[in-house]
TrEMBL record:
<protein>
    <recommendedName>
        <fullName>Actin-related protein 3</fullName>
    </recommendedName>
</protein>
<dbReference type="GO" id="GO:0003779">
    <property type="term" value="F:actin binding"/>
</dbReference>
<dbReference type="InterPro" id="IPR004000">
    <property type="entry name" value="Actin"/>
</dbReference>
<dbReference type="GO" id="GO:0005885">
    <property type="term" value="C:Arp2/3 protein complex"/>
</dbReference>
<dbReference type="GO" id="GO:0034314">
    <property type="term" value="P:Arp2/3 complex-mediated actin nucleation"/>
</dbReference>
<dbReference type="GO" id="GO:0005524">
    <property type="term" value="F:ATP binding"/>
</dbReference>
<dbReference type="InterPro" id="IPR043129">
    <property type="entry name" value="ATPase_NBD"/>
</dbReference>
<keyword id="KW-0206">Cytoskeleton</keyword>
<keyword id="KW-0009">Actin-binding</keyword>
<dbReference type="Pfam" id="PF00022">
    <property type="entry name" value="Actin"/>
</dbReference>
<keyword id="KW-0067">ATP-binding</keyword>
<keyword id="KW-0963">Cytoplasm</keyword>
<dbReference type="GO" id="GO:0044396">
    <property type="term" value="P:actin cortical patch organization"/>
</dbReference>
<keyword id="KW-0547">Nucleotide-binding</keyword>
<comment type="similarity">
    <text>Belongs to the actin family. ARP3 subfamily.</text>
</comment>
């Protein structure tokens, strides 16, 4: 049967979570943490076994290749057994450990999606600033190890834009603010083409919010077991955090009515299962505030997210700027905080209005500038907007024509994956 008649497999690998499923679906079938647990005891055993006993070495190597877990299973295994070591194959949006990544894909395809990779085209995602060599490695693993009939490597920001349409017509000009767990990218897209020279990246992402919450709770002296403090901070972030309009007002609110605003967290120690509890106070709004006032978290980077977005749009070609301000699309789990889009829109509008006012003042009122419309688009599926955009793209008939095929790979090698068509075109 022809692979083009079957739905394509869409896998969006992120630093924190991987979303996987089949094209045409509205939601991914599985959302799993991007982590691999490998049993180190077999590897040590193969090293210590004598040189002459090659069969023992061989079987230990085979077992080491087979005995690993991914996602939630990996986290559970590492908590219950000391034999398993956790490996995070992706850091800051880039793949660092290709062996672990190959294992991760193997489990995704055979264990979770339960499909034969030779029968489906594949759509994988990549970060906008990925090196061409990384695309080559991805193509090599997919064509050599899994023998896929076709592969398309998409830029996640373009997919998020395709998912974030506000009208029945899909608007492919806009700025994607992609805040994941390990990387934050601001990517302007004009008519579906990435304006490569204007991409901005900032070193504050979801993991930094978690670390800041962990630090605040530790400084306050909450009795959280050290081995569970990061995980507890992550769950607090996901369940209780919100964005406030004014930090001082928010502090006053919490001080006036602590009973109303302070939440209680109850957890269990990973090893013994003993219960513990702690209070969650100011970190509820101070966590997401890291994006708007980065100086409270670190002195290394102090430019707020709205200023970075404004710089990004100002560095784009002048005829695209109004359209870019009008369609700022949020993507990634760390944009899901309550009122995040309202705060971002308000702060951006202030910057833009101040510039228009300064321009009018400079010209002495002779020429009146049109007000610039600033619109931050928020939608319920922005947590997996990239995956959904991939699902939409891979459902179109043109998708199969755009893919790199196995025949092309055999003819030209991995270099076919080096260039990405969305970076060619307009500018």
């Amino acid at each position: 049967m022809d692979p083009t008649s079957r739905p394509a497999v869409v896998i969006d690998n992120g630093t924190g979570y991987t979303k996987m499923g089949f094209a045409g679906n509205v939601e991914p079938c599985f959302i799993q943490p991007t982590v691999v647990a490998v049993n180190e005891s077999f590897l040590n055993q193969s090293r210590t076994s004598s040189k002459s006993n090659w069969s023992a070495q061989y079987s230990a190597g085979v077992m080491a290749d087979l005995d690993f877990f991914i996602g939630d299973e990996a986290l559970t295994k590492s908590r219950s057994s000391n034999a398993y070591n956790l490996t995070y194959p992706i850091r800051n949006g880039q793949v660092y450990n290709w062996d672990a990544m190959e294992r991760y894909w193997q489990q995704c395809i055979f264990n979770y999606l339960r499909c034969d990779p030779e029968d489906h085209y594949f759509l994988l995602t990549e970060s906008p600033l990925t090196a061409p060599e990384n695309r080559e490695y991805t193509g090599e693993i997919m064509f050599e190890t899994f023998n896929v009939p076709g592969l398309y490597i998409a830029v996640n920001s373009v997919l998020a834009l395709a998912a974030g349409y506000t009208t029945s017509k899909c608007e492919m000009t806009g700025v994607v603010v992609d805040v994941g767990d390990g990387a934050t990218h601001i990517v302007p897209v004009a008519d579906g083409y990435v304006i490569g020279s204007s991409i901005k990246s900032i070193p504050i992402a979801g993991k930094d919010v978690t670390l800041f919450i962990q630090q605040l709770m530790r400084e306050r002296g909450e009795k959280i077991p050290p081995e569970d403090s990061f995980e507890a901070a992550r769950k607090v972030k996901e369940m209780y955090c919100y964005t406030c309009s004014d930090v001082v007002k928010e502090f006053n609110k919490h001080d006036k009515e602590p009973g109303k605003y302070i939440k209680h967290w109850r957890g269990f120690r990973p090893k013994t299962g003993a219960p513990y509890s702690c209070d969650i106070g100011y970190e509820r709004f101070l966590g997401p505030e890291v994006f708007f006032s980065p100086e409270i978290y670190s002195s290394d980077f102090t430019t707020p997210l709205p200023v970075v977005i404004d710089k990004c749009i100002q560095s784009a070609p002048i005829d695209t700027r109004r359209a870019l301000y009008k369609n700022i699309v949020l993507s990634g789990g760390s944009t899901m905080f309550k009122d995040f889009h309202r705060r971002l829109q308000r702060d951006l509008k202030k910057i833009v209005d101040a510039r228009v006012l300064a321009s009018d003042t400079r010209l002495g009122g002779e020429v009146k500038a049109h007000p610039v419309e600033v619109n931050v688009v928020s939608h319920p599926i922005q947590r997996f907007a990239v995956w959904f955009g991939g699902s939409v793209l891979a459902s179109t008939p043109e998708f199969f024509a755009a893919c790199h095929t196995k025949a092309e790979y055999e003819e030209y090698g991995a270099s076919i994956c080096r260039t990405n068509p969305v970076f060619k075109g307009m500018y």
